[in-house]
């Protein structure tokens, strides 16, 4: 699990009863909400925005999720996030969802997201601001403490 050391950002998420499906594990659609929560926390932390800020202008172009192990009620869930690539208007984000059972980290899912910088007033995609790229690059270049 050495690859987990590549991630400098992680959040904990409480698995709710309402997240479960008839099979008693987290429904696949709920993973999108977990990824969204992690993505918002990442950019709020990296760009030093308030915890309730939604001022980061971007839209999702694509999300791919590989489901590896079920997430169950009572699991300690952690979502790791990192930006792995910038284009002119888009960025590629990787996530790993980990559950901790009996002090063992288990990878529940891996996801990749294509995020496009977007100006909501103009209604169009725009270049990613240099200040955003610099802040992310500075954050991602730090050594993880795991």
TL;DR?
By secondary structure, the protein is of the alpha+beta class.
Instruction: Provide the β-strand percentage band.
Output: 35-45%
* CA distance, first residue to last residue: 11 Å
SSE order, one letter for each helix or strand: EHEEEEEH
Return residue spans where pLDDT drops below 50 for at least 5 consecutive residues: none
Q: Describe the sheet with the most strands.
A: 6 strands, antiparallel
Named CATH architecture = Roll
The number of domains is 1
Number of helices: 2
Report helical residue fraction: 10-25%
Specify Rg, calculated over alpha carbons: 16 Å
Number of strands: 6
On the 0-100 scale, what is the average pLDDT?
91
CATH class: Alpha Beta
Q: Could you name the CATH homologous superfamily?
A: Hotdog Thioesterase
Structural class: alpha+beta
Task: Fill in the CATH topology.
Answer: Thiol Ester Dehydrase, Chain A
Shape: globular
Question: What report would you give on this structure?
Answer:
By secondary structure, this protein is α+β, with helices and mostly antiparallel strands. The protein has one domain: Thiol Ester Dehydrase, Chain A. The protein contains 2 helices and 6 strands; from the N terminus they run E-H-E-E-E-E-E-H. Strands 1, 2, 3, 4, 5 and 6 form a 6-stranded antiparallel beta sheet that branches. A hairpin with a 4-residue loop joins strand 5 and strand 6 (124-125). The radius of gyration is 16 Å and the shape is globular.
